[in-house]
Design brief:
Structural class of chain B: alpha/beta
Strand content of chain A: under 5%
Oligomer: heterotrimer
Mean pLDDT of chain A: 92
Order of helices and strands of chain A: EHHHHHHHEHH
CATH architecture of chain A: Up-down Bundle
Number of strands of chain A: 2
Largest sheet of chain A: 2 strands, antiparallel
Low-confidence stretches of chain A: none
CATH class of chain A: Mainly Alpha
CATH superfamily of chain A: Transmembrane di-heme cytochromes, Chain C
Radius of gyration of chain B: 26 Å
Mean pLDDT of chain B: 97
Number of domains of chain A: 1
Shape of chain A: elongated
Number of strands of chain B: 33
Low-confidence stretches of chain B: none
Helix content of chain A: 55-70%
Radius of gyration of chain A: 20 Å
CATH topology of chain A: Fumarate Reductase Cytochrome B subunit
Helix content of chain B: 10-25%
Chain lengths: ~210, ~800, ~300
């Protein structure tokens, strides 16, 4: 699998892959630093960032950076992530999804309903995290907001982060579960079989113009 | 203070008027809190502003600045007409029964003997009728048409509540409520204390305001008792010591006055101060003046003062006039003063009318500043922009700045308001080249002395012969000075009753002024301090706060003048038979053989009460005076006169009498009179005061004080603020006829417009702090605004009531 | 900074119990501020600055008596002044010394994410240990009284320590020591309550029918208490909260949300793990490739 087969299909171009991994690494840093401040049992994670104060200093800047990076990613993928009527059938047949019975599912385009939902969740969580994060960014902005808004924002920030982390766990698991996905994001290509199996609609679309060998 | 700080806790009613004890004396104010908390005392505050004191008061009444005599006169009238006086006390212990001379009169606001040209009185008619026996005549029934009681009633009959309301702007109901509370202390078992300060002193009628307060206290029987008294709260830690030691221009130490021009003969001088009793068997303690005076002269000139040269009487200056602060600055302004030493004093900031002060200082040849700080005075010649807009090139005065240590950098004694001499120890050494005031003064003296020795002069003797027996000639120690001013024996002193017995060896410290002699065998630099450093050592350094009776009489804590007595006139706390009026807070009593108790008796210790000797032993009549005789400049009874800058332009109590609008006996220099403003141009009434956060112009040099009150402000009421279109925090310009200042406006509910004789008057509060030097935000000097006119007796400037105009800057 | 003589009973961001053998058996401490005796002299502010080596900046006058204008890292206590016209039309100048209330249930400590940055001693004092402070400002979010301030310079949180260093060696707090009128007193909480009762009785005799003690139950009581003339309207005193409590949002955020969220995250991962173990990966095999190939070949 290490070599690209001649008939491989490009799923993610290099810029998109880099963009994704920038967001992904930022997310990991944010999750680790955020969790460190969220639960005392994880405070030791601040050591990864040079201690508590550095964690406090870095977290919001990484956050802003991630949001900025995500905007590019969003621009790249958001058109393929709008929900279609067939997506709802997919969701209703979630049991077949979980049990690897893809043959029972409706044809999937570039992204399946699960991925689209994840995308939506990420977008909303990031908006929530960004806005609440600004309110609770003590060094620069908190002074402009009333205390109850700060309290609400602290809660909202924690909630959004919680949802996002769970969503990303699902995302990561899905990548591990559906073999071939990781390669798609690391190397950029998938095998025609992979595309045919998981994203048949997309497979058919991208191969329309491919000339016969 | 007739009483002392701790004693305030014994009060049933506390009247804070003419002062703001919580603001200016927060530590002493704790005893008011004690009286309230543990004695159920009621606190009354009467003040133009709702002050920090008012914030914890039971009753607050506003009053127009400068009208306190009207308020107190009304109170006297209320007490007399409602018979709320402690009758036994006043009949026995005051001059109510004394008969006044027939020539004495009071018409249209003026007393008999007034000379309009001289602005002064011939006071010969202001005295008692004296009988052929040499004693003042009395009528114990108080029925005599010319007895003090009748005259007092007549005088204050005009001060009805409606009139007081018209003059003071104080709402009548609140006034009556307060008078009623005050009147409740007319019973022998209730006491009121009056706490006042510069809010009374700094008026052209200041001394009479204080007198009016004292008269109220006498009528209520509140003088000489625990929890009572007239309590002057002194504004500097040692200003009591200043007056005690005679640093006023017409005083010698111990309240002996300097001779005047007309007293060139020693015998005449002494006779006028050696007062014979005016009633039978009265002590008249000033009969001892020769002992005090001779001991003083011995302390100063030692062997050069002898019986042959009248104890060096000729060495003393004979005054042609008072040389008070206003007089000196007037002379300076006229170019008649060459040099000036400002020792621990900042006249540019502290004296009225800064413009005049600047002009006066500019006419000096030299100015010496002795101060721990770089004062505004020391920089009067430097342009500080709008804050001190002078043309330095036109000022030729040479200024020397001599840095001194401050109080914490030296040891010595301070006299508190309570007359306590408390020794204190050095906390740290002075910085840099700072020297103590003692060292600097000694240096100036020794140089002057050698110049006189070398070059002679018109009359070098007083300088050359001055006693100067200090171990270090250039640096007398506080201990040496203390031993000198308290006093010691120059020869072995024999017991007058048994000449073979030596009571005090030569060189020994004396136990008290009773040991002083007029034959040159004792010396004491200040007779009232005699005994403070006694045979047992430095009593001022005592720190034993044992209080056996629980009423705060800690006789072993420091030392109180006179004779370690804590409550003056304490004999008056007992009835005629010597039994305490209120046994629960007895100060002294007669036990059949002697007087004694919780305090040192202010009386002849072995005097049987049956003999009729009265408690006010310093007065020749033995009783307290409601009728001041010739002792006040403007009359025997306090009368309301308007401040010199009156917002009314007339005196509602004496309408139509133009000579009685302002104090008729005040000394006003022509240039100062010309600088007065009129209400038409300056419609707002200003009053100046201190804030807790600062001490004059010193603490604006201290960072901590600057932090907690950083910038100059003026307080104005909400109505005035609306009228002139200013909101709190904006800058206002406050102008008087003498100049202007700018400051932040503090718009407050605590100052309300007062309705005075139908007019609405606005009060403007101007804190005196801040100047163009120091750590705080630089500001204008408040005394840019104030008028240069003083009280007719003390010449204390009228800082508490003058006219300004406030406008948006 | 932890003082040996002061036993810590509670520590921020700590999940296990603190040493519990030692207790304040002779009573927890309390500072009682009697607003009815207070003359607003600011001696307490100066004493606080002196003892704690603090110097705020020399500011300006804004037309109010408060200076500095607010609490800060260098001003741990501040007199606040309110001019209040009572229903009788009389003016009252209500002066309150503001500062940390040392809640029995401290919102700051609850909110703090950094272990040991905020502690509560056995005597009841709530103290900030700045060396552990990360500067997040959550203590500000948690405090019902708006007390902690984050320094602009070092981004650490500061507030009144109730002079824990002085109290540890048997001295009263500096502000108490300096108060000239005895408006601030210090002792065991029980004694202070008794003292307050006497004061309230006196105030009632002077016509303040609603005089009372401010020791709010919403934060389980405080170790700094006020005697108020108008205990029914604490808001008159420069906005002293009427019923202070830790905000329910903070309680949720720093309470049940913490373990539940963590559990849910772990659970999510676990579900994935067991799904993998149970159902296994979704792989693309040769038949899929074949199918794809077939489809491509079918194309015209």
């Amino acid at each position: 699998m290490s070599l690209r087969k001649s008939d491989a299909i490009v799923r993610y171009t290099a810029p998109t892959r880099i963009n994704h991994w920038i967001v992904a690494i930022s997310f990991v840093l944010l999750a680790l630093s955020g969790l460190a401040l969220f639960h005392p049992a994880l405070f030791w994670l601040t050591n990864l960032f040079g201690g508590g104060p550095w964690t406090r200093i870095l977290h919001p800047f990484i956050g802003v950076f991630m949001v900025a990076a995500f905007i590019f990613l969003w621009a790249t993928v958001h058109r393929d992530n709008s929900m279609q009527p067939r997506d709802w059938i997919w969701i209703r047949k979630i049991r077949d999804v979980v049990e690897n019975r893809e043959e029972n599912l409706p044809e999937v385009g570039r992204y399946n309903a699960g991925q689209k939902l994840l995308f939506l969740v990420i977008v909303f969580c990031l908006i929530g995290l960004l806005l609440s994060g600004i309110v609770i960014w003590r060094s620069y902005f908190s002074v402009f907001f009333p205390i109850d808004l700060i309290r609400f924002s602290s809660l909202l920030h924690a909630f959004c982060a919680f949802v996002l982390i769970c969503a990303i766990i699902v995302h990561i698991y899905a990548a591990l579960w559906v073999k071939g996905s990781i390669r798609a994001m690391t190397r950029g290509w998938v095998s025609p079989g992979w595309a045919w199996k998981h994203h048949r609609g997309w497979f058919r679309e991208v191969t329309k113009s491919v000339p016969q060998k | 203070m007739t009483n002392h700080w701790v004693d305030i806790k014994n009060a049933d009613v506390v009247l804070v008027m003419g002062g703001n004890a919580a603001e200016a004396h927060p530590c002493g104010f704790k005893w008011v809190t004690e009286a309230k908390a543990h004695n159920k005392a009621k606190l009354i505050v009467v003040d133009p502003r709702f002050t920090r004191s008012a914030s914890v008061a039971d009753y607050y009444a506003p009053i127009r600045p400068g009208t306190d005599i009207a308020f107190l006169g009304g109170l006297i009238n209320y007490l007399l007409t409602n018979d709320k006086i402690q009758r036994e006390y006043v009949v026995n212990y005051t001059d109510l029964s004394f008969i006044v001379k027939e020539e004495f009169a009071f018409t249209d606001g003026l007393y008999s003997g007034y000379s309009a040209d001289k602005h002064s009185y011939d006071k010969s008619s202001w005295d008692y009728e004296v009988g052929a026996d040499g004693y003042a005549q009395v009528d114990p029934t108080l029925k005599h048409p010319r007895c003090v009681y009748t005259l007092l009633k007549q005088h204050y009959a005009r001060y009805v509540p409606e009139m007081v309301e018209r003059v003071c702007g104080t709402p009548k109901e609140r006034m009556l409520q307060i008078w009623e509370t005050i009147a409740s202390t007319a019973t022998p078992t209730r006491a009121m204390t009056i706490m006042y300060a510069l809010g009374w002193t700094q008026h052209s009628t200041g001394s009479q305001m204080i007198r009016a307060g004292a008269m109220v206290q006498l009528l209520l029987g509140n003088i000489g008792v625990a929890g009572g008294g007239m309590n002057a709260l002194r504004g500097h830690s040692n200003i009591q010591g200043l007056t005690d030691l005679g640093l006023l221009s017409n005083q010698l130490p111990g309240y002996i006055s300097l001779p005047s021009e007309g007293e060139q003969e020693y015998a005449k001088y002494l006779a006028a101060r050696t007062l014979k009793p005016l009633r039978p068997n009265q002590l008249s303690y000033w009969q001892n003046t020769p002992k005090f005076f001779v001991s003083l002269m011995k302390a100063w000139w030692g062997d050069a003062a002898s019986a042959q040269n009248n104890w060096a009487y000729d060495y003393l200056p004979k005054l042609d006039k008072l040389y008070d602060m206003l007089q000196v600055y007037e002379l300076m302004h006229q170019g008649k003063v060459n040099g000036y030493i400002a020792q621990g004093f900042n006249p540019l900031a502290a004296a009225p009318n800064k413009a005049k002060m600047t002009a006066a200082l500019a006419k000096l040849k030299f100015l010496i500043i002795m101060d721990p700080l770089a004062t505004e005075t020391s920089e009067f010649w430097r342009n500080h922009g709008e804050l001190n807009d002078v043309d330095s090139s036109k000022i030729q005065t040479e200024v020397f700045r001599l840095p001194t240590t401050c109080f914490a950098e030296e040891e010595g004694t301070l006299v508190s308001s309570a007359r306590w001499l408390q020794w204190h120890w050095k906390g740290a050494s002075g910085p840099g080249e700072a020297r103590s005031d003692l060292q600097i003064m000694a240096g100036i003296f020794t140089r002057m002395r050698s110049m006189y020795a070398k070059e002679g002069g018109a009359f070098p003797d007083p300088i050359l012969n001055l006693t100067w027996k200090y171990a270090q000639v250039e640096s007398p120690s506080p201990e040496e000075l203390a031993r000198e001013y308290t006093g010691n024996a120059l020869k072995d002193l024999a017991d007058p009753k048994d000449p073979t017995k030596i009571t005090r060896k030569a060189g020994e410290q004396l136990a008290g002024f009773a040991e002083l002699r007029d034959d040159g065998s004792t010396q004491s630099g200040c007779w009232i301090f005699c005994g403070a450093w006694g045979p047992a050592g430095n009593l001022m350094a005592r720190r034993d706060n044992t209080d056996p009776t629980g009423i705060g009489q800690t006789l072993n804590w420091a030392w109180s003048w006179p004779a370690n007595r804590r409550v003056l006139y304490n004999r008056a706390s007992c009835d005629a038979a010597g039994k305490p009026y209120d046994a629960s807070r007895a100060l002294i009593s007669w036990n059949g053989r002697a007087w004694g108790g919780a305090d040192v008796p202010d009386f002849k210790v072995d005097e049987n009460p049956a003999g009729g000797m009265n408690p006010f032993i310093m007065n020749p009549e033995g009783v307290a005076r409601l009728f001041a005789r010739a002792n006040m400049a403007e009359g025997p009874f306090p009368e309301h006169y308007e401040p010199f800058e009156t917002p009314l332009g007339y005196n509602p109590l004496n309408p139509g009498q133009s000579q009685a609008i302002n104090n008729p006996a005040a000394r006003v220099f022509p240039d100062d009179r010309a600088a007065f403003g009129k209400a038409a141009q300056f419609p707002h009434v200003a009053t100046t005061y201190r804030l807790t956060e600062h001490f004059h112009f010193w603490t604006t040099h201290a960072r901590l004080n600057a932090i907690i009150q950083p910038q100059k402000f003026v307080e104005i009421g909400e109505t005035l603020a609306r009228e002139i279109g200013v909101t709190t925090g904006e800058t206002v310009k406050v102008s008087s006829n003498r100049g202007y200042i700018k400051a932040v406006a503090m718009v407050t509910k605590r100052i309300r417009p007062l309705k005075v004789d139908g007019k609405v008057l606005h009060t403007v509060g101007v804190p005196l702090h801040w100047g163009f030097m120091g750590t705080a935000v630089p500001g204008f000097l408040t005394n840019t605004l104030t008028p240069s006119v003083g009280d007719a007796n003390s010449q204390t400037p009228e800082f508490k009531a003058f006219l300004v105009k406030v406008e948006k800057a | 900074m932890a003082l040996q003589s002061l036993d810590i009973i509670r520590r921020s961001a700590t999940t296990l119990p603190e040493p519990e053998a030692r207790h304040a058996y002779t009573g927890q401490v309390a500072k009682l501020i009697d607003t009815t005796k207070c003359i607003g002299c600011k001696a307490c502010q100066v004493a606080c600055m002196e003892w704690n080596d603090l110097r705020d900046t020399v500011g300006t006058c804004t037309g109010h008596f408060e200076n500095p204008h607010d609490l800060s890292e260098a001003s741990w206590t501040l007199m606040r002044y309110t001019e209040y016209e009572n229903p009788k039309g009389d003016l009252e100048w209500l002066i309150r010394k503001d500062g940390c209330m040392h809640c029995e249930d401290p919102g700051c400590l609850k909110a703090c994410p950094s272990p040991g940055a905020i502690v509560q001693y056995a005597n009841g004092i709530v103290d900030f240990h700045e060396e552990n402070c990360i500067g997040c400002g959550y203590c500000v979010t948690g405090c019902p009284f708006d007390i902690p301030r984050i320094s602009k310079k070092d981004k650490k949180a500061y507030k009144c320590t109730l002079c824990s260093d002085r109290v540890a060696v048997g001295l009263e707090p500096a502000c108490v020591k300096s108060c000239p009128t005895g408006a601030i007193v210090f002792g065991t909480k029980e004694d202070m309550r008794r003292h307050a009762d006497e004061r309230i009785e006196d105030l009632k005799s002077r016509g303040f029918d609603q005089a009372g003690l401010y020791d709010p139950a919403g934060v389980a009581g405080t170790h700094v208490m006020y005697v108020l003339h108008h205990a029914d309207q604490p808001g008159l005193y420069s906005g002293l909260p009427e019923k202070p409590r830790i905000s329910p949002m903070v309680r949720l955020w720093k309470g049940s949300a913490k373990p539940l969220a963590l559990f849910a995250m772990v659970a999510t991962a676990a579900v994935g793990f067991f799904h993998y173990m149970g159902i296994g990966p979704n792989e693309t095999d040769e038949s899929d490739e074949e199918a794809a190939r077939r489809e491509l070949e079918k194309r015209p």
